[in-house]
Amino acid sequence: MPRLTYLKRLDSDRIWRVRELSDLRLQFENSVGERERNVTSRSIVVMCYAHWEGYFANCVHIFLDYLEALNLTYGALPMDFFLGACSPAFNQYRDKVDNSKSRLALIHAINAVNKTPFKGFDRKVLLPRSNLNFERLEFIFSMVGLSLAPFQPYRIKLDKELVAWRHQVAHGQMFTLDIARVISHTKFSEELMFSVREAFEDALHMY
After folding, report:
1. Contact 1, 202 (CB under 8 A)
2. Fewer Cβ atoms within 10 A, N terminus or C terminus of the chain?
3. Alpha-carbon distance 51 to 56, whole Å?
4. Which residues form the MAE-28990/MAE-18760-like HEPN domain (predicted)?
């Protein structure tokens, strides 16, 4: 399947999410009374994080779908991808007695991956896991081989605002945003999604 198909998937998933955040901004502007502004504020905080994590997760799936379609072997990919290939072997080793026999079996299982087709990759290895902060982003990008440079300016705001505010809402903290914060927060989520889209386009062009 041509690469263009996967690039279109990156675009179409981002576009509807950006439109929804735009609708939420408009909904806040039209809200009447403190109670409605409170509810809308918390909805915006939750949805900004949800779209950030959801879009990132979908980019991961698109990238892995693309690799599978290329019919590559694990040996043609960076060795970091062995982590997703070897999940069953790691789980079996964990459940066995730690001895030389078990360790040798693990080594053989890892070595066998080299010529194995890129199928059955444990996608949880590259997914956000409900907490897509900068540390998790850094780990995933290092595995895929992507540069974190475009995200360095977002590091503090990602952790202290996008992720932290979502946690605050989840724990029942009440706060109301003003229109300037609403615009800033939703635009930040949109900027992150755009940067992720650019990063995964680069990832697709690597293969």
Report:
1. no
2. N
3. 8
4. 7-205
